[in-house]
Amino acid sequence: MKKVFAVALAMTVAVGMLAGCGSNDSAQGGAADGAITVVSREDGSGTRGAFIELFGIEEKNDAGEKIDNTTDTAEITNSTAVMMTTVAGNDNAIGYVSLGSLNDSVKALSIDGVEASAENIKNGTYAVARPFNIATGKEVSEVTKDFINFILSEDGQAVVEENGYISQGNTGAFKSTEAEGKIVVAGSSSVTPVMEKLKEAYLAINPNATIEVQQSDSTTGMTSAMEGMCDIGMASRELKDSELAAGLTPTVIAMDGIAVVVNHNNTVDNLTSEQVKEIFTGKLTDWSAAQ
Predict the structure, then answer these.
(1) 12 vs 255, which has greater pLDDT?
(2) Which contiguous run of DSSP H or E holds residue 148?
(3) I need a surface site. Which of 190, 191, 196, 221 has the fewest CB within 10 A?
(4) CA–CA distance from 46 to each of 49, 199, 213, 226, 236 (Å)?
(5) Do residues 269 and 109 lie in contact, with contact meaning Cβ atoms separated by under 8 Å?
């Protein structure tokens, strides 16, 4: 009986050692298995626009027109929050989100061996970054001007930095004109979180103002600003030539990275830029090939 128990114990230890070796390989970044589930954002999303441009997923055809080559099999989400929830619920999913909005529900991958972080965006080693723009039309109310002055001030840019975004400098200490009135801000779901923080900080200084933040996407934000439906449009990308021609004036309020994210159960920790492009264009379809 003792002999049988000893043999069983030895087999258990051996299996455990083999499993341990496998665990070590995974911890060192072994590839996951299974078909890749590509998750992207909706048309009009500034994050999608910046992502496909930065990774070369968007290319020009012979006529000079920009073509988005995102695979037709991609699952489409309509906000940063839904993107993270979708990736968090699918072991084989891959998507992308604003770095400033990233939370612990998903895992951010290193790209070309560089970690996605505000520090690496500042030092230029993580190149997957884009501007956060606000845009106004020709008529700007006094209270809107005051709020924008706050955003660009030392006080406003401190809020930007505190929330994980990258300041591009500031205009110094803020002194409010205490203007009265309502400000409607509309657009990008990526810019919305920091805009809510800026709103909160500004209203503590100027209680005479009211601010309504409407979350949608960058293109809707720019259209709303052009049509006078909002005072400030938000875009997580550069403005298009057509938007500038329509009379919008852009102002960069921060820089933000784009994090490529996967499920925490995915053992892949790093992808090259080319691999990301191949995944999102449908050329690389299985995690076993992402090594």
Answers:
(1) 255
(2) helix 142-152
(3) 196
(4) 5, 21, 17, 17, 5
(5) yes
Task: Kindly report the pTM of this predicted structure.
Answer: 0.80
Domains and CATH numbers, the chain: 37-130+258-289 (3.40.190.10), 131-256 (3.40.190.10)
List, in sequence order, every residue forming a beta bridge with 214; answer none if it has no partner. 186
Average predicted confidence (pLDDT) for the chain: 90
Neighbour tally for 205: CB within 10 Å: 15
The two structure tokens encoding residue 32? 């996951």
The yes-or-no verdict on residue 125 having pLDDT over 50 is yes
Confidence band of 50 (pLDDT split at 50, 70, 90): very high
- Of residues 274, 270, 267, the one with CA closest to residue 92: 267
Distances (CA, A) of 261 to 58, 93, 268: 20, 8, 10
Residue 171 half-sphere exposure toward CB, CA atoms < 13 A: 12
In this prediction, residues 225-242 reach a mean pLDDT of: 96
The reported pLDDT for the residue numbered 28 is 37
Tell me the CA distances in angstroms from 26 to 19, 33, 109, 245, 259, one per residue in order: 11, 11, 15, 52, 22
Q: Model confidence over 133-176: pLDDT tens digits?
A: 999 999 999 999 999 999 999 999 999 999 989 999 999 999 99
Return the closest-CA partner of residue 153 out of 202, 200, 212, 207.
202
Number of H helices, E strands in the chain: 10, 13
Q: What is the pLDDT of residue 32?
A: 65
Q: Which of 149, 169, 138 is nearest to 248 (CA)?
A: 138
